[in-house]
Amino acid sequence: MFGRGFALGFFFFTISQIFLHSIIQLTIPPLKPDFAGIILDIVVQPRFIVVTTLFTCYTLFRRLAGSNEERGSQPNKFIRSLPLWYYLARYFPVSLVASDELREYARAHSLSEIKDMSDEKSVKMPLDRNYLVGCHPHGIFSTGAFLNFSTDATGFSDLFPGINRYLAVLKLHFLAVLYRDFVMRLETPSANHEVLCSKFSAVNRFLSSLTDG
Question: What pTM was estimated for this model as a whole?
Fold first, then answer.
């Protein structure tokens, strides 16, 4: 996967440079188009060497690290709690609300002998089972699902204390260089059968999936 990502990035960067230099030589007289010279000029440019070196080092680092990019195996609490997510949630606005049916379910299946009804701010879901949630409709960017289930912007941990939540996304998100590392820091797994079964191998998992996207 990293090999494909590196190859695609290298290819598009090279094509963009060739296109840019071609336009310059074709539109600014008295220069004449010399595509061999253009390619040679690009290859020896410092920025081309720097970008190629960085891509190579990044690819080698990810290969040697041997982490599983599809399981969201590198969670980072700092990334989930960035102030940016709170501002984004307030801008739309986006909020996370527990329905009355869900609260009744939590009360009915509470494992404690005394079911405390006084704390209405949180919904104490049973921690001895798993939960699978489908997000639909979610829009083009799935902003609501992202803020609710991948960040702490809307208070998921306070509303559902003790629940480990994940937002499964398409495998396509793990093909982009650097962006895949950002997705992994949010502990976001890939939405495929193997990964989902792995997540549900233990209890107390809340997995939300973007239906049709």
Answer: 0.70
Pairing mode of beta strands 131-135, 205-210: parallel
Whether residues 107 and 207 fall in one domain: yes
> Rounded to whole angstroms, how far apart are CA atoms 42 and 20?
10
pLDDT tens-digit series, residues 124-166: 899 999 999 998 888 888 899 999 999 999 999 999 999 999 9
Q: Which domain holds residue 42?
A: 4-65
Give the CA distances from residue 161 to residues 37, 47, 125, 208, in Å, rounded to whole numbers and listed in that order: 63, 49, 8, 17
Terminal CA-CA length for the chain:
21
Q: What is the DSSP letter of 154?
A: T
- Residues 6+ positions from 91 with CB-CB distance below 8 Å: none
**189 shares its domain with 158:** yes
User: What band does 16 get if pLDDT is binned at 50, 70 and 90?
Assistant: low
Q: How many residues does the chain have?
A: 213
Structure tokens at 41: 């000029």
